[in-house]
Amino acid sequence: MPNEKEQKTSNELAEKNYEVSDYKSNSELAKGLATTHEQVSDTYMEGTVDGVIENVEGEDVPLKREHYESRKADPKGR
């Protein structure tokens, strides 16, 4: 069972919400929220999770995976 300090820290993390400034943050939590927000937003708008978005001409265009690929190479993002 977590002590009071650990519980307080866990509660503070759980209460964190996405903010536009998260994209420019140095916090791993904020960057994660920004990435998740973008993924959810893309999925909601497109109605699919396959990583392909339809352009104005109706053609399927694969989404870039630059951030994901760079994180795989260096999980710390350096």
Automatic annotation (TrEMBL):
It holds the Pfam family DUF4025. It comes from the Bacteria. Residues 61-78 have a biased composition (Basic and acidic residues). Residues 58-78 are annotated as: Disordered. This is YozQ family protein. It comes from Fictibacillus barbaricus.
